[in-house]
Amino acid sequence: MSGFKIFAKAIDLVVNNRKAAMQIVLVPCLIALGVSFLMFGSLASQVVGTYQYSPFLFVGTLIIFVIWLWIAVAWHRFILLSEYPTGWVPAIKLDRIGSYFGHGLLLGLAMLVVIIPAMLVIFTAASGDGGALGVAVFLVLYALATVLFYRLSPILPAAAIGKRLSLKQAWAATKGHVGTFVGLFIALSIFGAVIGLILTLLGSVPLIGPLVQILFQVFSILLGVSVLSTIYGHFIDGRPLD
């Protein structure tokens, strides 16, 4: 049940801190939307039927990625350090953003070292079959990758708040809690399916559909960061989930 408690705690962190969430995400999201519109305009300006490289597409994507890191770091620091936003522009801590990005790369490399050999073994064993078995293999790999990610994920909040935490320390702190992360995976999968259904039903509704989609995307970002903050708080700081 601990996995579902982590999920519930993350939901609670977002819902009960709506004002702080708005202060942290509003301006960065407006900037990201502006950059997105400029990117689409750049694409639309290209000659139909020909390929024309646009440097702004790369730069725009990079800007949006950095904005996501900006939001993530600010929200981690709010949750774990009670660093309340003082206005409508969250503090830009470039050192923490850079550290968050670097630790994210480290985490990704660590996952590849485990996932790629496992993927080769499983797909080799299932090479003569397809259909339902192929789907099952994908789900097993996806669940494995997710559990592995959450076990090592405390290094990300640690980077955001300026604490030194190695992959080995994160792995040791989450030892014996695979069931917890499987439960968290299930809870998030159910949540994602429900949200996907809602967005599908409202997607064709003028104005309301796009607005709801944007709101859910922002909520999902904060929820994901809250999950990582909750994992760090519980397994590293010893904070209760209740």
Number of helices: 9
User: If you compute it from the alpha carbons, what radius of gyration comes out, rounded to the nearest whole angstrom?
Assistant: 20 Å
> N-to-C SSE series?
HHHHHHHHH
Q: What count of structural domains? A: 1
Could you give a short account of the major beta sheet?
A: none
The strand count comes to: 0
Quote the distance from N terminus to C terminus. 12 Å
User: What is the beta-strand fraction?
Assistant: under 5%
Query: Which runs of at least 5 residues are low in confidence (pLDDT < 50)?
Result: 47-51
Q: Assign an overall shape.
A: globular
Helix content: over 70%
Can you give the mean pLDDT?
85
The secondary-structure class comes to: mainly alpha
Structure in words:
- This protein has 242 residues and is mostly helical.
- It has one domain (2-235).
- It is built from 9 helices and no strands.
- The chain has helices spanning 2-15, 18-44, 55-81, 94-125, 132-152, 155-161, 167-173, 178-202, 208-235.
- Helix 3 (55-81) crosses helix 4 (94-125), helix 4 runs antiparallel to helix 5 and helix 5 crosses helix 8 (178-202).
- The longest helix is centred in the middle third of the chain and has 32 residues, at 94-125.
- This is Glycerophosphoryl diester phosphodiesterase membrane domain-containing protein.
- It comes from Litorivita pollutaquae.
- Keywords: Membrane, Transmembrane, Transmembrane helix.
